[in-house]
Amino acid sequence: MSGQSNGSASINGRHGANGNGAPRKPCLRVIPLGGLHEIGKNTCVFEYGDDIMLVDAGLAFPSDGMHGVNVVMPDTSYLKENQKRIRGMIVTHGHEDHIGGIAHHLKNFNIPVIHGPRLALAMLSGKMEEAGVMDRTILQTVAPRDVVKVGQHFSVEFIRNTHSMADSFSLAITTPVGTVIFTGDFKFDHTPVDGETFDMARLAHYGEQGVLCLFSDSTNAEIPGFCPPERSVFPCLDRHISQAEGRVIITTFASSIHRVAMILELALKNGRKVGLLGRSMLNVIAKARELGYMRAPDDLFVPIKQIRDLPDRETLLLMTGSQGEPLAALSRISRCEHPQVQVKSSDTIIFSASPIPGNTISVVNTIDRLMMLGAKVIYGKGEGIHVSGHGFQEDQKLMLALTRPKFFVPVHGEHRMLVAHAKTGHSMGIPTENTLIIDNGDVVELTADSIRKGDPVKAGIELLDASRNGIVDARVLKERQQLAEDGVITLLAVVSTDGVMAAPPRVNLRGVVTAADPRKLSLWAEREITWVLENRWQQLSRNSGGKAPDVDWMGVQREIEIGLQRRLRRELQVEPLIICLVQPAPGGTPAYKGRADAEPDSRPAPRGGRGGARDGGRDGGRDRAPQPRRELVAVAAAPATAAAAAVAAPAPAPTPAAAPEPEIAGRTRRRRSAAAAG
Ligand SMILES: [Zn+2]
Ligand SMILES: [Zn+2]
How much is the average pLDDT of 477-488? Predict the structure, then answer.
């Protein structure tokens, strides 16, 4: 695809650095840095000439195996490199996957102004305050049909849409090459809970004028039909609440403003007082009530400490934890770890949300625990207690029909959803060549009459720990996975500056499950140290003219770690984290006469070709005869007989462990890819 890069369609001036040649037609570049091939961290870059405009900047939640990772952010190297050109940002609505990244990004690069809906910006300002970046940008609220100008080249109209979040917008972005419709998250809900209907007339207006390209929400592209309206859950919830004998406990996303508003309405209708649990539930409801997106009398709410004094039949607890998040209120209650609320067998617990893919296991575990405590738990699709905030196929068709775009790019979804959405587009007459399925970091280049993929920019993920400041990089993540799965081995080696082992190595195991006896482990460690000193010492130490040679001790440690790791993987089928510490001893320290050569080593660890690079040439040394081993006495007079025997013959002693290596390698690879996924 990038092979067409000298075609007539062009890239903008900034990339014209190669100087010579044909005049380039300026084009609009649209670069999603997140939100594709996943649900989460939606972050999109619009670029024309010298202007960059951002649309949304969200976060995603970690997948299993991302130990100690709190949130996942997109890699924003591209924005950091180009921050001088960032003119502003547009926010479509207040969901975490659209605004959750902004406070973090403001620490790293400047965004002069952010335009967005009142509710989203109110939620954002709370996050910015917490992060201490209030002074880094200007927040500008917009009303439906407001038009804002960003930089020289973009003007953006906010078109009211309907979604599970109140105050949500689709965008009409007018650029020098034409108008782009960016749907944001949407479904067509003709009876919205707050009465704010989808401004379809405005979409149709742009469709009539001519839309260059549609970027549309693909979340439910695999589901036929229309998405049911949010109101449809009202009678189902009402039935369960009115029939409940004891307390009602409901969990949903705090940010599903319409759902929360309906639950409050139902509490009032059924004569129940409401207790709120969970920080985000308290925050969002306070913000939404303050701004008038939710109407509920003050005396509907009772502090959680006093709610115990009310009869169960007059109590409704609304809380976080619909996704089984370990620290959320309902999860803690299910583990009997909540200080204020314990489950009673008369409780009715309602999950008014469906698990985000990846959270399913923790959600069903929570349901199991609650049931085991005796509660009646209502969950699942058949109950009519949850509907999606994202349109199904027919909603998506309606969007295509209203906007009638020339080009079409499905966004906001996993790969198969993008493919399904593209198919829907084709079924409505959009030619295949006018549709692009793209990935994060891909560059969509649009002119008035062409669409194509340009050379991609850097994209990926950045993992943040609980502090949201510390970045968990890929190496740290791999180490944590090793620690969690196979434990840790520490190895202390004493090596003199002239490259001899000066004391027996000390090996320590923590969390490692193995049948191998400790003697064997220290023997293996000894062998790896010996091997490194014999085969790598020359590269790792340099005689710079001084008294003692310059030794790359880190390199020595790394080599020993790699060797021991390979051996353990092969011999014991475990892959613990190995930490080798080398304690340097002065030159001339007498050598420790190891046991390494006391028994022949029939299976020297295979070594990769290129300086033992991790995983490089996994089987590099397999067919080679064992490396000749030099006796490690300072004055190598006569090799001991056992050593000589080891040198002479690649000992035939068969080891039963010979077969499983490919399998183990396979297992390792699977684990890694499982970790990398998401
Ligand atoms: Zn949303
Ligand atoms: Zn979204």
Answer: 79
Spacing, Cα 412 to ligand 1 middle (Å): 10
Compute the distance from residue 56 Cα to the ligand 2 centre, in Å: 10
Pairing of the two strands 577-585 and 488-496: parallel
The mean per-residue pLDDT over the stretch 7-13 comes to 38
Distance between Cα 185 and ligand 1 center (Å): 5
Ligand in closest contact with the CA of 187:
1
Q: Ligand 2 centre from 451 Cα, in Å?
A: 25
State pLDDT tens for residues 343-380. 999 999 999 998 887 788 899 999 999 999 999 999 99
Q: State the Cα–Cα distance between residues 557 and 583, nearest whole angstrom.
A: 10
Residues near ligand 2 ion, CB 5 Å cutoff: 97, 185
pTM for this model (two decimals): 0.74
Instruction: Identify which ligand lies nearest to the alpha carbon of 56.
Output: 2
Instruction: Quickly list H helices, 536-660.
Output: 537-540, 553-572, 641-648
The two structure tokens encoding residue 342: 């314990």
**Is the model's pLDDT at 664 over the cut of 90?**
no
Give tens-digit pLDDT for 529-569. 999 989 988 888 877 666 667 888 899 999 999 999 898 88
**C-alpha 388 to ligand 2 mean position (Å):** 11
How far apart, in whole angstroms, are the C-alpha atoms of residue 347 and residue 272?
14
Distance (angstroms) between ligand 2 centre and the Cα of 29 equals 22
Ligand nearest to the CA of 388: 1
Residue 93 C-alpha to ligand 1 middle, in angstroms?
7
Query: What's the 184 CA to ligand 2 centre distance in angstroms?
Result: 7
Ligand nearest to the CA of 412: 2
DSSP symbols for 469-521: SSEE-HHHHHHHHHHHHH-EEEEEEEEETTS-EEEEEEEEEES----S-HHHH
DSSP H or E stretch at residue 317: strand 315-319
The first and second tokens of residue 205, run together, are 């207006």
Rounded Cα–Cα distance for residues 205 and 217 (Å)? 20
User: 4-27: b or e for each residue (b if 16 or more CB lie within 10 Å)?
Assistant: eeeeebbbbeeeeeeeeeeeebbb
Residue 326 makes CB contacts below 8 A (sequence gap 6+) with 362
